[in-house]
Each structure stands twice: as C-alpha cells, then as structure tokens.
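**Backbone shape codes:**
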Amino acid sequence: MKRFIIIVLTAILLVPMTACSDWFTPREKNTRMVLLYIAATERTLSPYADGNISDMLREYVPSKKSKDQQLLVFFQNRNTDSPTNRSDATLTRYYMSNSGKLVAELVTNFGNEFDAADPESLAKVLKLAESTCKPTTRCMLISSHGTGALPIGYFDGDGEKSSDAFSISRASYSEGDAPAINPSRMAMRESIAYDSHSHNEIDIRDFARVLGEYHWESVLLDCCYMGAVEVAYQMRQCCDYIIGSPTEILITGFPYPVILDQLFNHPGQEGLENICQAYYDLYQNQSSALQSGTIALVKCSEMDALADICANITATRRSEMEAVKRLNVQHYYYNSKKDYFFDLGHYFELFASEEQYERFSAQLDKAVPFKASTKQFLGINIEHYSGLSCYVPSSSYPILNAYYKQLAWNQRVKILE
C-alpha cells in the first residue's frame, strides 16, 4: 500500500513538472519590421524627403513596449554644403517612449561617402536592419527615382543615342493649381536609388538579388515606372506583394500618413489595398494636371501562372503579336522620345485570341488584385488600365531589345526570341 501511494504521488508530481518544461521553452517572437529606404540625393526629390518622413511619423509610430513592431528608416538626401552633395547616410530606429515622446535612436551613421545607389550598399543596410530587429516578417518601402526595367544609364537621354536629357519645367504649371502638391519628379535622369554624385543606379536584377537574401511580405516602390510586369516578375521570389505605379509618380509620392498604420496594424493584402486606395484618393482629389495617379498591387504568387499563359499566347500568336503597331497600344509615357512603357493588358488583347485573352485576363486579375487610375495622367488619356506596364519591342531600340532579352520575364514569355 505504501509503495502504491509513493508511485501515485510521484506520478502526480511529474505531471506539472512536464508541463512546466513547456512554460520555460522559449517561444519564437513574432517581430514585424518596416524598413524605409529613402535615397533622395537628386535635387528634385531631396526637398520633399524630410516632409514625407514627418508626415509618416506624425500619424503612427510603434511604442517602445511593442517589441513585435520595429520601424527603421535609412535616409540620405542632398546636402549642398557637402563636397559630395550628399548628407550623411543614416539608419535610425523610431519609436514612441513610455511617456509618449517620439524617439529617434541612431543605429549607425554611414557617412556622406555612402552610396545608396550601389546594390552592395543596399545589402549592407538590409543586413544591419536584420541584425538590429531580428524580424520574422519584413515590409519595405523604397523612395527614390525609378525607370522600371530599363538598363542602367538608358534613361539619361535618348536611350540609344544618349542625348537630350529629359526634363519638364515646373514653370509650365501654375502655382495655383494645387499648392499642396508640386508637379512631378521629372528630372534630368531617373533610376532606382539614383545617386546624383556617383551617377550610380541599381539594375532591377541586382535589386531582386539583394532583396532576395531575405523574404519580404511587401515591397512598396515609391519610384517612377516601377509598376512593370518585368519588375514584378524579376522580384516574384523576393516578396509576397509589390505596390508600384506604371507611370511617373508626382513629387508628393505615396500617401505617407497612412502607410505605417496599415503596414503594422493591417498586415497582408488588406492593408496594402488600403494604401493603394489612399494613393488613388490623394491624386483623384487634386485638380487640373495634378489629378494624375496610377497604382497597383501585385500578388507575386500569381506571377508564374500569368507568365505561363502569356508564353502560350506568344508561342501560338507570334505573327499577330509582331503585327501590332506600338502606337495603337495604351502608353504611359508623355514624351515621344521615351516610348518604353505600354499597358500589359491592352498589348495582349491586341493579338491574343478571344479564348486566350479571357484566360489571360482572369489570371491578370489574380496577379493584380487591386488597381486604380485617374482618367488622365499629365495629359495622357488612360483608356486601358491593367495595373502593369510592359515593354513593346521596336527595331529602333537594338540596345534596349538586347537588354530586355536577358530579363526573367522575357526568358519565360519570349516576347523577343
């Protein structure tokens, strides 16, 4: 009997001990990191970069107590007092203190020799952000210039001739049109993360390679022309979602006041659609030429299926595709010397069979679950809008054609053989 009692007591004591072992097993901390990469050394962007950050921080910042939310901002702009025309490049963590005060905690100062438009510089920032936050979920917004999937240096001038730098004077717009918004980030040159001193920029393939070291829930591209199918397909394995515009982006950029709340507190597709809607509302509510905005959300997991359908169409309808006149395709450029960006959906509609186009259109709706556009963009009538642009080949652009052949989209779809 005594032996029985001892056995029973031992069994009873072992139960909570086993349970306690679970209590002391470390649980994986779910940490959502939002990283802003602001590369604004070019003269047209620099004056607005500080304002964008201020607008964003005024509306929502994670509290110090919420270890599951981490906000990091990489920032570099133009500094006319610096020999390099760059400010120091910094990575800063922002949070609200326990007393409700905004705290900017410097993670590191890279100095003004740091080149934000070098892909290896981007890699350094991402590595440091990773070690600082140790995130389980990552969101990123990059704000700079952009040229979609054009090769490095191509947008400097006439592309094949590299002359006649592209610019549109702000004087062509009256100050009374919309005092809250200045016209466009139309500069002498545009490129993703362009640096005005080194003239570096990041090729989309390098951009995807560097980002692909980690997996991102979303990448928001506040850079002109990045809403291209070639960009989305190149980045499809880096992230779950992409937000971009197939046209220029006016200097105001993205709707910064809503971004942090949506990325932190409405994760996934819902928050991203809210950001897209806020972007559309921002520009739809302007007047005159400033009522110009296009935006789209891309779901990367649907891009391979879209590419498969497009590859089938190009393989079976090549003669019809080659007969399409570029001038008949909805375009997103307003300078005839920069005719690189056309509407993907309208392009395929012009040469696919009716049955093929129905399948294509259905899959495109899955790949682009949200899209919105004003009726015009700086004088361009937007009559066909699929949310993504594409390159339509031309014999006038042998250099661009050769580059385009190398991109992952063309490797799969074979627009150019």
